[in-house]
């Protein structure tokens, strides 16, 4: 709903202002420059695991990392689609190094299998980008008995990260992709699995809030343990991807490239949407516990588009009691313990 309201505000503002893309462009104040793909350093010799790398933001993230010399592990539910994505990456960047691993985050057994395969094939991992997710899907239960959205968006990444933790190299980064939808989220610990009532928007918002609670608690534990690994989070802003397949035809049309002449200010493409994750993963100045998203300034304050910067997350994401409680519940549900971090 937040995304839809954002777009409606954008449409109203654009129509009332009567201006086109050129007239509405605004430079950063104070002479600051935008962070772009050109700022990503050479990454030869590194290994990155990107979940959901067969399409959308995940594919774009994998493509850019591979072009900088990273060996990218495309961890995807569908191996055929992952193989096709690897072919696209190779075509765009001859000499790019990729491999594929089957990963269904909704299945704890598959998460363990994928983690085992990654551990067996790669002695160390430099980047783990928890990108894959689902959005506002009908109520479903996984083979583990978990609500699908929570299982895919939080419990799966929680387990995968824990199972790969001791394979992360010194200086490694864990980047988890959240969403502006976390602003509408609230952790319902009394009905975390939506057994009494299921609302697709609430389930999604809760899962995206969980991403931030997880990231902040993980980074705190990493620092307390003296680990040379950091955890960061990001959000892509409003990006039209396959995740919107569950939205109404009207909403999909309003967000689509067909409406670019009107929605350009409020919706961005995958190339722009991947920049926050790429900055969190590669910017030498990035710090553990930071949250990256489109920089909002001037006229852009109304919208979630633009170049990446450190941004604020909602107040609920900083609830330390919720951090600890979600961590405890997640360890219990997944059976994955981060014992090395205490």
Structure explained in plain terms:
The chain is α/β, with parallel strands linked by helices. The protein has a single domain, classed as NAD(P)-binding Rossmann-like Domain (Rossmann fold), CATH 3.40.50. The chain is 41% helix and 13% strand. It has helices at 2-17, 21-24, 56-67, 79-92, 108-121, 148-164, 200-224, 249-255, 260-263, 270-273, 275-282, 320-334; strands spanning 47-51, 71-76, 98-102, 125-130, 168-177, 229-234, 291-294, 308-310. An eight-stranded mixed β-sheet has the order 3-2-1-4-5-6-7-8, sandwiched between helices. β1 (47-51), α3 and β2 (71-76) form a beta-alpha-beta unit. α5 (108-121) runs parallel beside α6 and α6 crosses α12. The chain starts with a helix and ends in an 8-residue tail after the last helix. The model is unreliable at 1-30 (pLDDT under 50).
Residues in β-strands, percent? 5-15%
Q: What is the global morphology?
A: globular
Determine Rg (CA atoms, Å): 19 Å
Give the N-to-C terminal Cα separation.
39 Å
The level 1 CATH classification is Alpha Beta
Structural class comes to alpha/beta
How would a crystallographer describe the biggest sheet? 8 strands, mixed
What's the overall average pLDDT, rounded?
87
Number of domains: 1
CATH architecture: 3-Layer(aba) Sandwich
CATH superfamily membership: NAD(P)-binding Rossmann-like Domain
Assign a percent range to the helix content.
40-55%
Uncertain segments: 1-30
* Strand numbers in spatial order across the main sheet: 3-2-1-4-5-6-7-8
CATH topology: Rossmann fold
Let me know the number of strands.
8
**Number of alpha- plus pi-helical segments:** 12
Order of helices and strands: HHEHEHEHEHEHEHHHHEEH
């Amino acid at each position: 709903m937040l995304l839809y309201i954002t777009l409606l505000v954008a449409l109203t503002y654009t129509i009332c202002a009567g201006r086109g893309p050129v007239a509405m462009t605004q430079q950063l104040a104070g002479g600051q420059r935008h962070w772009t793909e050109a700022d990503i350093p050479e990454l030869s010799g590194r290994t990155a695991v990107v979940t959901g790398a067969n399409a959308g933001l995940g594919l774009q993230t994998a493509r850019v990392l591979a072009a900088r010399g990273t060996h990218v592990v495309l961890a995807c539910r569908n191996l055929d689609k992952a193989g096709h994505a690897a072919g696209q990456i190779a075509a765009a960047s001859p000499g790019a190094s990729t491999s594929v691993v089957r990963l269904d985050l909704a299945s704890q057994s598959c998460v363990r299998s994928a983690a085992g395969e990654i551990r067996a094939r790669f002695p160390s991992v430099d980047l783990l980008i928890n990108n894959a997710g689902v959005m506002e899907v009908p109520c479903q239960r996984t083979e583990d008995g978990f609500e699908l959205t929570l299982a895919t968006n939080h419990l799966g990444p929680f387990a995968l990260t824990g199972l790969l933790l001791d394979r992360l190299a010194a200086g490694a980064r864990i980047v988890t992709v959240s969403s502006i939808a976390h602003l509408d989220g609230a952790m319902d610990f009394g009905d975390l699995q939506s057994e009494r009532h299921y609302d697709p928007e609430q389930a999604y918002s809760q899962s995206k809030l969980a991403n931030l609670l997880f990231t902040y608690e993980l980074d705190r534990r990493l620092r307390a343990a003296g680990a040379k690994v950091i955890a960061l989070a990001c959000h892509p802003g409003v990006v039209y991807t396959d995740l919107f397949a569950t939205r109404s035809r009207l909403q999909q049309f309003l967000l689509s490239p067909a409406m670019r002449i009107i929605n350009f200010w409020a919706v961005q493409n995958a190339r722009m949407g991947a920049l926050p994750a790429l900055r969190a993963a590669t910017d030498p100045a990035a710090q553990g516990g930071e949250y990256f998203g489109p920089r909002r300034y001037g006229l852009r304050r109304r919208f979630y588009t633009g170049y990446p910067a450190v941004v604020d997350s909602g107040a609920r994401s900083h609830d330390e009691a919720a951090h600890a409680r979600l961590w405890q519940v997640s360890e219990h549900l997944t059976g994955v313990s981060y014992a090395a971090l205490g």
